[in-house]
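Re: Re: token formats

Sure, here are both.
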Amino acid sequence: MARLADYFVVVGYEHDKQGGGDGQGRILQRFPEKDWEDNPFPQGVELFCQPSGWRLVPERLEPSFFAAVLTDINSDRQYCSCFTFWEEADGKQAQKSLLSEGDDDDDGNMRSGRLFAPKSLVLVSRLDHADVFRNCLGLIYTVQTDGVSVALETLIGNLLTCYIPLAGGSQRTITLGAGDRQVIQTPISASLPISGCSVALLFRQLGIINVLYLFCAALTEHKILFLSRSYHRLTDACRGLLAIMFPLKYCFTYIPILPGKLLEVLSTPTPFIIGVNSFFRSETQELLDVIIADLDGGTVTIPECVHVSQLPDPLLHQTQAALSMVLDPELEVADHAFPPASLQPSTLKIQDKEIRAVFLWLFTQLLHGYRWCLHIIRINPEPIIRFHKAAFLGKRSLAEDDFLMKVLDGMAFAGFVSERGPPYRPIDIFDELLGNQAERFCLEEGSPRQLTGYIRELTEKLFKNENPYPAVAMRRSQRQSEGTPVPPQSQPSAFPHLDEVTVQLFMDHATAKLKAAPPIVKAEMKCMVPSGPPLGDTTEKNGSVLANSARRLEVVRNCIAYVFENKMLEAKKLMPAVMRALKSRAARLCMTQELNQHVLQNRAVLDDQQFDYVVRMMNCTLQDCSHMDEHEIAAALLPLVTAFCRKLGSGITQFAYCCVQEHAVWANMQFWEAMFYSDVQNHIRTLYLDFKENELHGPEPSGDSEEELGALEIASEQRRLWPTFSKEKQQELVQKEESTVFSQAIHYANRMSYLLLPLDTSKNRLLRGSGLGDAESVTNSYVTNSIAGSMGESYDTESGFEDAEGSDVANVVVRFITRFVDKVCTESGVTSEHLKSLHIMIPDIVQMHIETLDAVNRESKRLPPIQKPKLLSPTLLTGEELVMEAMRVYLLPDGREETTSTMGGPPLLPAEGAIFLTSYRLIFTGTPVDPLVGEQVVTRTFPVASLTKEKKIAVSIPIDQLVQEGLQLRSCTFQLMKIAFDEEVASDLAEVFRKHLHKLRYPQNVRGTFAFTVGQAGGMVVEQKSKEKNQTFKALSKNLMKTAKKTIGRQYVTRKKFTPPTWEQRSSFQSQLEEDEISVSEELDQNSHTLSSTIKPVDRQTMSNVVERACCRDYQRLGLGTLSSSLTRSKNEPFRISTVNRMYAVCRSYPGLLIVPQGIADSTIQRISRCYKQNRFPVVCWRNSRSKAVLLRSSGLHAKGVADFFKTPNAPSAAGPSQTDSISLEQEKYLQAIVSSMPSYSESGGRNTLSSFTPAAASSSDGSDKLRQPKIGALMKQVMGSKEDVPSGFGKGGKRAKIISHYHPRASEITQNSRGKWGSIRGTGQIAQLAGSDPPQANGSPGASHFLHPQRSYLYIIGDKSQLKGSKQDQFQQWEVVPIEVFDVRQVKTSFKKLMKACVPNSMSLDPSTAFYRCLEESEWMCLLHKILQVSVLVVELLDTGSSVMVSLEDGWDITTQVVSLVQLLSDPYYRTFDGFRLLVEKEWLSFGHRFSQRGAQTLAGQSAGFTPVFLQFLDCVHQIHLQFPMEFEFSQYYLKFLAYHYVSNRFRTFLLDSDYERIELGVMYEEKGEKRGPQTFKSVWDYIERLNKKTPVFFNYMFAPEDGEVLKPYSCISNLKLWDFYTEETLSEGPSYDWELVQSRPEEQQDAERPEKAVCVSQRRVVWPCYDCHSRVLPDAITTLLQELQSLEMELGKVPEKWKDTWDKIKFTQRAESRLESRTSSRSLLMSSNLSHQRRAQGACLHDSMMGSSINLALEAEGGIGSTSVGSLGSRPSTSTLYSQFQSTESENRSFEGILYKKGALLKPWRPRWFVLDKTKHQLRYYDNRQDRECKGVIDLADVESMVPGTPAMGAPKNIDEKAFFDLKTTKRVYYFCAQDSLNAQLWMDNVQSCLSDA
């Protein structure tokens, strides 16, 4: 029996409060005035009566009721039921209160004249009967307000003296003495929570998903905050959340209603469930780790920093489905054709119990079988229970489940085990479910019907528990005011002051009466708690068939049998299979069982070989176990490691525990606790079984049945019999149990010393990777803060590791064992005397074991060492040096399937060998561990400079030696090394290796890279010789810098503009040089300075060097500028070569010579450059030879300074030139000059000023343009986006423009749809009006007919969409901005990381989310390639139609460089040759600047930036184009891979620095020129490729048969792109093949040479292994094979082998001649060029590409064009490469200009007249003996021409000829000297040749 209410309190408003601030309440009266002894009065009740604060209100509010919960210091909850009503306050008191409160609206309150103060009636009780308390307090209030003639003291006295039972299902009728009667029904079970309707209301307010989130958050100990305007809802929500947590009890802070004055409680670090009024919502916004549930809004907000673990997936889905059936039963039949009549949800009370039944079922599923994992370590005098968490998770196969792990670690589960662990106690519905229904739940788990039936049964039980007598209704007296409304004028009287004496006398009388009554004693029903079905039976069906394979278990049994039968050869054969089989749990258990059978009397003595095999199997078994040992493998091995031993000498025995110590499980304190408790439980069980047998005087009758009893059953029986025992017997049992625990503690102290002390204790260090527990991990049952996962080597004092220099292994182990003993003995009730003796005993045990280990260690060193493979030394490059000696390591398998046995081949990895760190590479060489493939050599290597990530890993592999320290090294060349150091490698040596590796990877500067340090140590003599030569270049660079700095410093004072960021954030300043109008090709007048007079001698030498760079050579080839000072040429040149940047003062990342418009002065360029990021202003980099359109590149605009140039003006009319900024005008003139240089502009009558420009539709009617218009429109729509993201154009109409993607020939259609032009991204309203207007205006402007045809802009500016918001197009359609969305380098970096992980995963995974194609898709690498190609094709289309394009993106050195390079590659066939591609890379990437050092993280300064492969992305795009057009490229795919590898290898200096300026500054710009180098040392990758290309055709594409002048337009859709095999290929036989010197001596040839000659028949077949052999070597293509055979035959004949290129050219010439004869005899016509191009694309797409080419027939036919024809006429169609030879040589198309020229021969040869023919089509200058000669005597390729200048007469020249008739033609190979008949002919020849050069 318990009191219904403990205290009755009247709380009122405090009118006499001193000081300002909010109001407050005070306790007016309290009954009883003295505290009960068993329940003291709670403090702070007045705060909870008005949680929002005590305030006066101008209107009387309705009475309110709510129940708050208070928790005392003993965690006991008290329920405060508050009934609040409002009384009118006294005028003076109200005024006084208002003054003290200081409200802002006090004047209004005073004017109203009436104020009302709150007053609360509070009942404090330990019982949660909220409805009963509501009725009681309402009755008291009704009696007082309605004037019922009953004393209030009587009501209160009756209420405080009412006693009711706590549980039992009884009903009690109570009355307070006012004619009322209430029936209180007590629940049947006191352990089940009473929820009423609170759970159903919670789900109705928040929904299923949100409540499940709150449920999981509460169980995993997160902070939860409820918000609502209703206090009653807050209490119900908190009560409902606790109800669904049953059988777990919430044990943290629980405050359903928190007063506003206590809001600081929300900042507590501990978990809580708290409710707060929505009035304080703003106060909760700063809570970053609190989950907020808004009951009124129905939302749950989870902060980003909070991770809520969810239920395991099957259970989560089933729970959601079950809750849906309860809350919405119509959902299941909503789709039925004949739905039932009505399926309404149950009433709230029934629905509440249905929901709770679902959660009860959920907990049954989660916790079933937990009682089989309980360890009972003491039975008497009180049971002590511990829970074996690891065993539970292992048997349930839930070791990886995060939610259940956190639940088992939580305090709620700890209380669950303490409360429900004892085996003999009263049981409730949850115990019955676990014991009887759990098996039913598991067997019929997937049946929704069965689940519905279970829920219905549980619902009935839960409902009956709360309502034992549902027919009995609660009745009470009705308030009079309910039936008769109270007039508003009537004022209820104030609540009176109660008489304390009357109430106290009434209570004393009732108490005395209660004491006289006999006590009610109810017997407590105790029984044995059922355990349910064993866990093993319910989880067998979840086991893997593969893991439990009988064949694997048989292999394990056979191998162990062979070991103990001394059949070592058979055991050795089975050992690899056993190692793989031991990956499964069943095989590991089988191994422990088999080994246990060979133990006799706790000892098994083995010989050396047997011992080694047993230890190997033990180590393999333990390496696959986690630190938790959830499968109890380590527990089964623990007695075995102390049983198996071998004799080392007389009296010296080595046990197996010495060799299995380095595993994490031995350092886990929880493992030792679980093992200790398990053994103690077994001994306690044996103790009571023996005790029972002795009592029965004979074990025979009940022996069998007793053996089947478990420990819990025995404990239950003992607890039942305990009261019947005498005190002596009880004391005897307690002493025996305590002695059992004490003896086990001694035993485990010995065991722990065995496995924690290393064999060699003299090294004074602990085992690698082992952590001897943590001070906080002191409980196995609940807390899992194990540090076994931590592999650190230094620990603090608490953890028992090396905390000081003087600490040694013995002290560490002693502390660890002592802490363990203290923990388990304290929990097990060991006496203090025994505990003290243990503390004395432990150091002696450890010291004794150390002495034993010293002898064992001494004898073990005399054993013969294990035979390890011989270390293989790698081949090094010239100049490559070893940094560290070889370290023996194991190369571990990664996630690539080819290296393992999963692909059908032998497992190449793990391999045993050594790792070598050189100045250039990281090299592993070794042999596979598997003896079946032990003869193969495994090599994996990558350059040190390509290392992107290095991290330590924990190693767990089945190998002979025990290793646990490892490194994972990932390279951007798509290599991954997972290495594990051998035990002979000291840990400090491994750390030295890491430091050396880091130092080599990130040198201090570029000088420290391998390309600069190669050969320094060995080549000191060479270096001294070259020092004087290099002195010139160093002086040159220093003088250059001094001059630039002086100029910069002199001009800095006059600067007033802001300075944009410069290259690499150097603190440099822009210089305003004096205006220099001199350019190399400019007209010279008398007032201008010459080049030689302007530039100083040192600068003149710089200019001569600059002129020889790739940029200038390409300028001359394209006809963009010339170095001749011809007056005739310079007048007509639209562009010129400017030297404004010759000192790199304008832009440090640009080259020294730049192409700019002819009419732009250098001073203007300096001002324009400030508008662009990094000063990278627009310059011309390429010109289309057909359309004369130019390609420009620049960086993006600055955010300030030029906004008025592209931004839309605020005024409706455009601002005049006088209102604009001068820089914007100059920039506008700059763009106008580019537009004016185009022939199409000059033909259309364009002028040089914008104000006089008249737009026309010139060249828009061209037929070819008509075909291209729809494609360009579609391309622009794809690039820019097709919907609202296209910016609107601004004109008079102000309408949004659209892209016309279809060409409409009819004028009417165009009139209706002409909102924009075909190539224009945005049209203007002006155009639309003109299209439908009247004839032309009087001022001569074009009429509507001129705008009917789609027009294009003369210049398109490709810009970043984010920087061009609000931009406007040019008013006169001369240039137009194309805004596109581009990605930044951070996206490239992130994408590349994901690509590397997809192509080279670090481990095998069966998870579908980590599959290769899924990871490849998530990397978005293909999407980035698609975007680059898409923009490039768009630019190519625009250039091909005659419009110039300016690419102006980001800083101008990443995406801009990619796009302009690809555009030139697609548009110009010259760049698809060896020389052209080299020229393209040198010009666009090296001269125009790219941040190779930062993007590649080449030095220490770029380490934090990370690796960003922008150049690799460009090469991948070239690879995609190569795949689609394989006949258009002279180089092969291997050429691209070679560049991709060496651009990050740092072997060459080519890609090291960021710009020409940095190369000059470092003195390496021209140092290769004329420098003597070693035979194998190359500083430029191009020289290396050129030398290698002469030796071998490895870089040549045999299918090279280009179409002259063909523009490539590849498909850019992701479906057309293929993953580059450079990312995935692996050659373990020799490593990467890109260091050609290392793979010249092939292993195959050495093996062939070593074969014995006496073999009669040797098969030519060989096995090709994936990921091991190089396919191009093992299976070379036909052409390479034939060339190699031809070379070997020539050597056999004693001839000097002919170069492969000469042989190939002869074959091609012969094949062309044959195809020419076939074409002459054939009567069939040629294919159309468009069809031919289509066939070439189709053929190229179907070819199987290899590293070096395809078959010789295919290549030769492709060269002859046969492969380009249809299938039916392969033999008769002419070749595409012989199209020119079908015309006679006298035709005018092939002879642009011809005549006689004298040509000087070689040395000592005379001048001879020749007939020269200038061929503009073939871009050649051919010469013949005479005009009629058909056989060409020589060809000069104009692509090689560098310059053409007037010459002087030489010795032997023709006489009587003018001196001006001589001119010289300089090519890259030689200089040709010519002489014409007179000066006029000479000038004509020079002009024609120069014109041909300009058209290129």
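Second one below.
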Amino acid sequence: MAKADDEIDPVDKTNRSRWATRKLTVKSGGLKRISLMDRIHKSTGSTEKKRHSDGSQSTEDNTQYDSATATDQNEQSDAKSTTSSSTDDGEGRQVYFNLPLPTGLKDDEGTPIRTYARNKIRTAKYTPLSFVPKNLWFQFHNIANIFFLFMVILVIFPIFGGVNPGLNAVPLIFILAVTAVKDAIEDYRRTILDNELNNAPVHRLVGWNNVNVTEDNVSLWRRIKKATSRNMAALWHLIQGIWKKDDKKDMLEPSGDPRPSVETKATRRESMLSPRTDRTSYVSAYEDIQMTPVTSPLPPHSPAPQQKDFLEVTERPTSGQSYNPDELETIARVKGDLINHEVTPTGNARFHKDHWKNLQVGDFVRLYNDDELPADIIVLATSDEDGACYVETKNLDGETNLKVRQALRCGRTLKHAKDCERAQFFIESEPPQPNLYKYNGAIKWDQMMSHGPKEMSEPITIDNMLLRGCNLRNTDWVLGIVMFTGHDTKIMMNAGITPSKRARIARELNFNVVCNFGILGVLCLLCAIVNGVSWAKSDASTAWFDYGSVGGTPGMTGFITFWAALINFQNFVPISLYISLEIVRTLQAIFIYSDVEMYYDKIDYPCVPKSWNISDDLGQIEYIFSDKTGTLTQNVMEFKKATINGQPYGEAYTEAQAGMQKRLGIDVVKEAAKAREQIAAGKIHALEGLRKIHNNPYLHDENVTFIAPDFVDDLQGESGEEQKEANAHFMLALALCHTVIAEHSPGDPPKIEFKAQSPDEAALVSTARDMGFTVLAQTSDGIKLNVMGEEKHYPILNTIEFNSSRKRMSAIVKMPDGRIILFCKGADSIIYSRLKRGEQAELRKTTAEHLEMFAREGLRTLCIAQRVLPEQEYLEWRKEHDKAATAMQDREEKLELVADKIEQELTLLGGTAIEDRLQDGVPDTIELLGRAGIKLWVLTGDKVETAINIGFSCNLLNNDMELINLKLEEDESGKTTDEVFLSQIEEELDKHLRTFGITGSDDDLLHARKNHEPPAPTHALVIDGFTLRWVLHDGLKQKFLLLCKQCASVLCCRVSPAQKASVVSMVKNGLDVMTLSIGDGANDVAMIQEADVGVGIAGVEGRQAVMSADYAIGQFRFLQRLVLVHGRWSYRRMAEAIANFFYKNMVWCLSILWFQCFCNFDITYLYEYTYIILFNLIFTSVPPIVIGVLDQDVSDAVSLAVPQLYRRGIERLEWTQHKFWMYMIDGAYQSVMSFFITYLTFAPTSAVTANGLDISDRYRLGAYVAHQSVITINLYILINTYRWDWLTLLIIAVSDLLIFFWTGVYTTSTYASTFYGAAPQIYGEASFWACLIATPIISLAPRYAVKALRKVFIPRDVDIIREQVAMGKFDQTEKEDTNEVTAKSSSSHSSESSRHKRHKQFASVDEDLRPIYPPSVATQSVIGHNAHSQNGSDGTNYTRHEPSLDVPVIQPVDPAPEPPVRPSYERVRPSYDRMRASMDRVRMSYEMSNDFTSAAMLSRFESTRTGPDPDPSQQPVQSEGIVSRIRRRTRGKSFKAAFAHHKDNNIHEHE
């Protein structure tokens, strides 16, 4: 707390005003996902009691959750966002510390009534004991497996004609075994991850009594399970030990060793990316973080003299954190202290290294830097004297920017284990609920006062809680208490169970299988009836047959015949189909994994298929939903340009600039090469100049991103002292106004890296370092800088941090000359509205134009300003600030009001431009996907303006699009009713729907579901998360969906993970289309799981998305190959393979049926039994698999060159019911030909053999039919195959020859019985060879004729492309692809050195938490977005009063020179000129009808806070031409050359 007395030293310690770094909720807040706890509790139910946490043993605790108290976990979208937990029965929980439990919380035996979820997490489905029964249970949920099992059972009974039950069961056993092995491997991997997590180390307080939990009471069944698991694990480790001789240390040290208390230093992690690295050293002189010790049972040691004040805590401290009896007894002066100093510690308590799984609610834990949080923990104390700690939440929301969390004020005196023993308090907490950004609780204790104890309390919010899954960063240690464990933690309540996805073809296949069941049933019934009737006839020869019917009566005979026919015709539902499809999908996954074109060498990551059974779904994707940050962008922020004192600096060539030039028809490849040369030369010059000024040891060439040789020249004074001073002061402002933490990396030369809450802020401070203004360290009262080789200390009096509503941050600094200066940086609209009126008119206009131009290049801009404060004014303001900081109610609002008072009357210093670089190849990939007919939507948590800016950079948006902006104004007071919001947005939707001539009716939806054509590129839609919450209402969802379908691009901004999933579900189910979601963070998991196909990007940071995805890739650009190449191939291959499978079984089975016509349908076998077995095993099994794995209609290069071929998959034309029935008809026709050609050859005459015997028996007839059927089937498959390479032809030939080989070998054995000697007999017949030649030709003729006629007269797109390939029109495709890669690389890299990693890569950044940097409103000058959402202005329909800077101009005769803005030398600025020449035209109608942000608009912002708008007529509109004003500031001859290719008559200069 700041002091409230009148005399304040202005050079006191830094006071930092922190606001909540979380997303705020309102009454109508965003949707949240439904909790899955109910299902989890059902699977983990148990009524056993917990252990008493009083020992130091690291035992494995497997106590199950008490399912008796389970309640429904449906979330409520209300202001409180509190969802009752199953363990808390919908009520809050009370946790006591060193206090006895109240009677109401204990049973008759004195044990706690309430039980809590264990901290052990298990995501695996099976245990060694349950695997076999549970896996079989899951597998027999498949009705096909039940049918096949039934067939095996039928064959057991000889009466049904079964031959070999064991052999008949082999295929089913094979399928079950293969599936079980696959499930076992997947579950084993999950078990390994579970064990790694559950056995991770954490320091837990032992040796004290946690009254909230009781002893374990492990049941007999659990003991059996644990013993089985231990034995299986021991067996596995024994096997591993044979292969691995080197033993690894266990994660935990022996339990008897406590953590020493004296001179303890924290062990640094090996890497930030390995949060679970073992702490193998407890005391080491080589480790570098001084830690606060814990009480040790070892003999006491005296601390080192320099550590005495830091280590010792007196029995009755008189610090500001505890009660001092000498002070006056006023509430304002009493500081909370949880320690009861009258209690004598036992000395038994100590922090012991234990497993995560052993943590219980109510445990004290001590965490260290880089530790991962094992549970939801309330922070009591930290190593920071202000109680601050930093956490990285990438596992929760995909963001790696650091967030500040605060220790409770009353707990900051807790340092040692003995303090924890004496702390007496209890916590009232809300029940577990899944809202990541909200928590309500209160800590209560008795405070000792002069007249006795007084009950006190302090509220607990989300800012005092560390959530499981986060990582502690830049904080030596944290002491806290466990509040929620296991499945009660917020991350687990938000974690969805990965759904079991089935390919669309597999789902549609069920209908065809049912159809075949129907056909099979009809055939069996036909056979039963006919056979029964035939035996019932008394005038037929069968009546005199000696043996009679098999059933004794005609009815029983028909019944038996039905089941015998079911066995004989079972291949109508082929088990071989399911086996073969598993093989096909597995091989497809292997090929995808093995594709080197999708291998990302930077992180050594190929494309990894996580789900092997949905590869064909990749070929039917119509909608792709993508995250932005870390998915489309690299989230590597690089400082590129600046404008200082009206002078633009910086050389860069951005993706957006390349896109603008490409639309103008400029050769981007040549332009990029030219730009690279200029930038490389400029970098050399700049580095030489920097080292001439000062030999900066922290300057590393590869890290420099601000390439500005003219800046360096001006810093040397070449343009005069004024500009030199302006540049130096600007960089000093960047080095002082921030909240980054400097980390020194050892080496020669040394390195300094910056950890920041925002990557933008790190980029700004890094550039200041490169220019010679290096932040060396943060001190307790300021910042230590190295300014041009001279170390200086700047006291920071106050830091007013960023939040989403302020959009700025400020630092109040005492300068060496005694001045007090407030430095402020933030959004340009915010800064301009706070500038001092009547000053810097020309500078403001010039800076605004520069910022607008930077924004056109896709750069993210902000302004820097300052204010010199009189000391008396600062002292008075500080009093108000301290008063607001000590307020117990509405503290944040009061602090913001006080900050607003001081951040006025600012003086503009300049602006910066940072590039959030797109990933390589993103624009090309999006363009290619668009040409394929795929619609891409961006669902991001970032701001609307940022998303739009990136949309232009990556070709999602262009200047010809009309932007539909759906936005409801949020009413945080909660007075606006739901009906009002719904009516407002419905009115907007109806208005926009009328534009497209639709109303949103059911008929419109029906038409939309049938229409798969991409919409015209005339409209794009932008919506924020608050508005999205209302359009997803059941009554409006359909209208919103139909409106979105009419738009070429849709950007959903400020959306929560649950809203992302809701949008995906809306499109997937509403339009009945195939969807794909792609993201890189944990906040993308919900939509990845919801989509038909989920793709995770394995970034440098977290892998949360990858763990839940179906496919994992290293970069977004690999998506084009995954979808357009492998997806299209897999879909077409799978559709063809399935159709051919049904066809070949139809030929085989119906041939048997035709034979039954001549034997009264008594199910006499036509084929010898080995033929029946081997038909689907070797004779015809491999050719369909070859189609499913190797067939290619066109090559991968052609697939990418002609992405329109993919549209056939979008329309789902490769697998249709028409195709299925056509193949079935083909099979029926060919079965007739195969049987009756042979029969008609056999029937009229007897065969003449060498020994005079006739061979006209049924097995010889069957051999005839079998040979030609196999030949016909394999040739038919060959006709349906596009690619006839040597491997395909070889497989077809071998499959055909195998039946000859088997017949020849098998019939030489007497085991063949009546079939003995059949091979030489039938092969010696001319009729056999005649049938063998004639039957395939007659059978295949119709299919061949239809194919030939269709390709000639009704060709498909692929047929035309194949002809062009044959003509050689695509011979240069591969070479062109190489050139395109070069161009892509050229346009996406500003210099060769940019290939190196410059700053830490952040996986995701929430704009709410970005301390300094919302994107410039100037970005809207390209797209005309309403600026109200970010500037707070009430103005509407602002019309610019000067010609647009976007409009191309004619180059007139050079005008007379004008006075310069400031002293400067003439110089060429290639990047500036190139951008000015590339600014393309904006659609004027849209520009003039909207709040169109521009440089002129920024000028309007100047007076929004200090007075009325100036008269527009007084602004200099036509006093000078645009070109002259630009030339006056640039004075570069390249300006004229750059304009040579960009002329227009729409603007005339008035000079």
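The longest helix spans residues 1118-1156. The two ends are 61 Å apart (CA to CA).
- S.
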